[in-house]
Write a structure and sequence with these properties.
The chain is built from 2 helices and 12 strands; from the N terminus they run αββαββββββββββ. By secondary structure, the protein is mainly beta. It has one domain. Strands 2, 3, 4, 5, 6, 8 and 11 form a 7-stranded mixed beta sheet that branches. Strands 1-9-10-7-12 form a 5-stranded antiparallel beta sheet.
Length: 207
């Protein structure tokens, strides 16, 4: 085998590995109606919205608020007979992380990393959360009930991370309820079934 053929074969293997490690998609639009209602919030709202923090990188700036939801509506502490060693977590270990952003930057990228139990091949595991339910008014979400004003963002997912990129000017939205907040809200779902606790807390940055 010639050196050129060896080099070509090696390049093909590297490209195949890279393609297997990452996946690019347009992202999924999910409604807050999928996660629960106000009446059973103790069953799905694990950690309420945080205070807003400012993220910066050269030439770009954004503010972010985060929240954690039990995807299976199984907040351990809400059970009548909870497993005490799982107190403070989701019984099945299925976590949904919400990240709400406001920014005036152009072509902003949002990187969510250090994900444990993340399946990048399942497009339902990451995307944008919209407020689509009159019976769920206390979940953080993007106040765009029909999803018609969500930008054509892209998402690049890998084994432990996903990066959302919003082209052009970052969108603005009217404020929802105090709990829904205001801004573009991304979600990421992980499954820590083997070990629901300790909770894996993702890292967040912009680019």
């Amino acid at each position: 085998m010639t050196l050129n053929r060896i080099a070509s074969k090696f390049a093909l293997i590297v490209l195949t590995v890279l393609c297997a490690a990452t996946m690019t998609s347009a992202g999924t639009i999910r409604g807050s109606s999928d996660n629960g209602e106000d009446s059973n919030a103790p069953n799905w709202l694990l950690l309420g919205r945080s205070k807003s923090i400012t993220l910066t990188v050269t030439g770009k700036k954004a503010t972010m608020t985060r929240e954690i939801i039990c995807l299976s509506q199984d907040v351990e502490n809400a059970f009548s007979s909870p497993t005490l060693t799982l107190s403070g977590g989701c019984d099945t270990g299925d976590y949904m992380y919400l990240f709400q952003f406001q920014s005036t930057s152009v072509n902003l990228g949002v990187s969510i990393g250090k994900l444990s139990g993340f399946d990048p091949t399942n497009l339902s595991n990451f995307g944008v959360m919209i407020c689509d339910s009159p019976t769920n008014t206390i979940e953080m979400c993007t106040n765009d009930p029909t999803g018609t004003h969500i930008p054509s963002f892209t998402a690049v997912a890998a084994k432990t991370s996903v990066t959302f990129t919003v082209p052009n000017t970052f969108p603005t939205y009217p404020a929802g309820t105090a709990q829904q907040g205001q801004g573009l809200t991304f979600f990421v779902i992980t499954s820590q079934k083997a070990a629901p606790l300790p909770i894996s807390l993702p890292s967040v940055g912009i680019r």
